[in-house]
UniProtKB/TrEMBL annotation:
One of its GO terms (cellular component) is endoplasmic reticulum. The keyword Ligase does not apply. Belongs to the PRA1 family. This is PRA1 family protein. It holds the Pfam family PRA1.
Length: 209
C-alpha cells in the first residue's frame, strides 16, 4: 500500500472503522528495528503506517503511561479510564459490540427497556443506507456517551487536583507514541497485513451492493 497517497483524514477514518479486537503485536516485533526516516515524505508514510498497524500497542502504551503517572490518585485513574472508554466509543466496532453486550445484559432484567434501547430503523436504498450509518449506544447516538464520559473525566480530574499531571502524562504518552512510530521501520508483515485488511474492506463494501 502506498502510504504517501493516504491522507491523514483517511487514516483517522480507517482507525474509526477498523476492528480493535485484534491482539497487540508481540514485544519483540514492537521493539525490533529502528532507523531515522530519510526524508519528510518517508517520515509521513512511516508514521501513518505504524499508527495504523500498531494501533492496539499504542493504545495500551497510552493507558499504561497514564496509569503509572496517576497511581497515587485513584480519582484521576478513574477519570483516565473514563477518557479511554469515551475515546474507544469513537470506533464503530467497539461501540457496536459494547451496545450489544449492554442490551443483552439489560434484557435479563427488563426486556421492555432493552427493546427501547434498540437503534432506530434506517431506510435502505439499493442495498445501502440512505444516509451515513449512525452508531447508537443504548438507544442514544454515541456522541452523547462520548461527551458525558469526557465531562465526567474532567470533573474527576479537577476533584483529584491532578489535571495538570494528567496533561503532562498524556503529553509524555503521545510523545512516546510519535517517537516510536517515527523510528520503527515498517516490516514486510505490516505491509502484508495492510494489504489483507484493505482487501477485506473492499470485499465487505462489494458484498453490501
Amino acid at each position: 500500500m502506498d502510504w504517501d497517497s493516504v491522507a491523514a483524514e483517511d487514516v483517522i477514518e480507517a482507525l474509526r472503522e477498523v476492528e480493535w479486537s485484534t491482539s497487540p503485536r508481540s514485544f519483540a516485533e514492537f521493539f525490533s528495528r529502528f532507523a531515522f526516516p530519510r526524508s519528510f515524505s518517508k517520515w509521513m508514510s512511516r508514521l501513518k503506517c505504524n499508527l495504523y498497524y500498531y494501533r492496539t500497542n499504542y493504545f495500551i502504551l497510552l493507558i499504561f503511561v497514564l496509569g503509572l503517572a496517576l497511581i497515587t490518585r485513584p480519582l484521576a485513574i478513574l477519570g483516565a479510564a473514563l477518557t479511554a472508554l469515551s475515546l474507544a466509543f469513537l470506533n464503530d466496532s467497539f461501540a457496536a459490540t459494547f451496545n450489544e453486550k449492554m442490551i443483552r445484559t439489560i434484557r435479563h432484567f427488563s426486556p421492555h427497556l432493552a427493546a427501547k434501547m434498540r437503534p432506530p430503523h434506517m431506510p435502505v436504498i439499493r442495498g445501502r443506507s440512505a444516509t451515513r450509518k449512525t452508531v447508537y449506544i443504548c438507544g442514544q447516538p454515541r456522541l452523547v456517551f462520548v461527551l458525558l464520559g469526557l465531562i465526567a473525566s474532567l470533573v474527576l480530574w479537577f476533584t483529584s487536583c491532578g489535571l495538570l499531571w494528567v496533561l503532562y502524562a498524556l503529553t509524555t504518552a503521545i510523545f512516546m507514541i510519535v517517537l516510536h512510530a517515527t523510528l520503527r521501520t515498517p516490516n514486510l508483515k505490516a505491509r502484508l497485513n495492510t494489504f489483507r485488511e484493505e482487501f477485506r474492506a473492499v470485499w465487505r463494501n462489494y458484498s453490501e451492493i
